Backbone:
């Protein structure tokens, strides 16, 4: 097979969706297939709307047998507010009681604006691929480009939307991922690969056929994840051996629950808790502003690390005691699996796909998004009851070993590819 993958970001940036695309791409190459990845030059997520943030060089490179082409993100009038303004206009149009899809499709080409990539998909890129697979709503310009590319070349379109459904009774997050034009592209694709039953059932309720929506999920590669040394992490970041560590790994942002995590730890510190808080991962602007406003004694008890290497991540997973990511913007959360692989108990929010990942009271706790008191209570309970924490961590580890390795997930995805590549689109 010859496969085109379209992803907003790709290695060397490692996040959940980036790892998903990389694992599939590299495993296909090892199996003798040809894979091209079209992606952008964004490193920081905020670079999609803020030209001051970090980005990579454009061009073509080969990584582990995968040909990767990076296209430049352009910034409308170099104005960081243009991206948000267009998004708000799209949200307003999507809510109108008339069919606004034609306007939404026009506007989505700026979300983000990557004109060379869009042109390559819509008028270049010879159609010698067997299928195209695109990830991540709401990066609509890339999804729409892949959608048009598949139609123009008569090949199957696979979408992994990573829908952020947010809180069940709150549309704040969900409305940016389920606009009419987005649902049209999902309905007209040949396969929509989802992570959880929650995501699948939502799409079925919106009119997608059962044949098109397939739950595959994500996984970990034990060989790549093993080898963490907690002592090395503690030495490097000056964390005392006998001090417990509460930690999170991912983007540090309000929607990820980072603010609530710090506030929960403040409550515990006021009660005499001696745990350290480690926040690893890219720091978004909203959280950076919040963190700078904290009293110095609070900041001193937090280790705000920013993006860390894979070695540091493994070491932190080994060193940590309780993993907490009470996010409302996760369709799954691979990092819960990574923490479980290291036998750590986890805490997540009752939002997105996370309630289908964490078995509340068995391998972790679920708390309402934004409920600082409940979050502090959950963290405190696991720090105080080490036997329960070990039990939760072991239960999670066994679940990962049974259900969530890339070896099994990749086999399912490859079978879908092979089935589709034999059919007319």
Residues:
């Amino acid at each position: 097979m010859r496969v085109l993958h379209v992803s907003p970001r790709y290695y060397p940036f490692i996040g959940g969706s980036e790892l998903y695309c990389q694992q599939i791409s590299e495993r296909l190459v090892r199996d003798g297939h040809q894979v091209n990845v079209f992606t952008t030059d964004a490193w920081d997520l905020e670079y999609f709307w803020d030209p001051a943030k970090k980005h990579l060089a454009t061009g073509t490179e080969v990584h582990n047998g995968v040909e990767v082409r990076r296209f430049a993100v352009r910034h409308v009038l170099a104005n960081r507010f243009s991206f948000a303004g267009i998004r708000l206009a799209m949200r307003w149009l999507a809510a109108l009681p008339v069919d606004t899809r034609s306007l939404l499709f026009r506007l989505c080409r700026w979300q983000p604006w990557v004109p060379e990539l869009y042109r390559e998909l819509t008028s270049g890129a010879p159609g010698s691929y067997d299928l195209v697979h695109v990830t991540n709503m709401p990066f609509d310009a890339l999804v729409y480009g892949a959608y048009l590319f598949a139609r123009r070349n008569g090949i199957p379109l696979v979408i992994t939307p990573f829908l952020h459904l947010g809180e069940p009774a709150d549309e704040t997050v969900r409305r940016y991922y389920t606009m009419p034009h987005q649902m049209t592209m999902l309905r007209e694709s040949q396969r929509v690969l989802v992570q959880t039953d929650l995501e699948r059932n939502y799409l079925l309720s919106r009119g997608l056929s059962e044949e098109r929506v397939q739950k595959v999920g994500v996984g970990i590669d034990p060989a790549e994840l093993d080898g963490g040394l907690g002592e090395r992490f503690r030495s490097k970041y000056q964390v005392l051996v006998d001090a417990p560590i509460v930690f999170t790994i991912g983007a540090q942002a309000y929607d990820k629950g980072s603010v609530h995590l710090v506030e929960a730890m403040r409550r515990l510190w006021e009660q005499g808790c001696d745990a350290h808080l480690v926040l690893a991962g890219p720091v978004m602007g909203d959280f950076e502003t919040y963190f700078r406003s904290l009293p110095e004694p609070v900041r001193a008890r937090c280790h705000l690390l920013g993006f860390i290497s894979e070695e540091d991540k493994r070491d932190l997973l080994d060193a940590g005691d309780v993993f907490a990511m009470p996010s409302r913007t996760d369709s799954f959360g691979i990092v819960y699996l990574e923490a479980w692989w290291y036998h750590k108990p986890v805490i997540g929010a009752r939002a997105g796909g996370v309630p289908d990942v964490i078995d509340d009271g068995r391998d972790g706790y679920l708390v309402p998004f934004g409920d600082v008191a409940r979050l502090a209570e959950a963290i405190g309970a696991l720090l105080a009851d080490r036997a329960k924490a070990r039990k939760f961590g072991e239960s999670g580890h066994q679940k990962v070993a049974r259900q969530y390795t890339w070896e099994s997930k990749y086999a399912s995805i490859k079978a879908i590819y092979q089935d589709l590549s034999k059919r007319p689109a």
The mean pLDDT is 94.
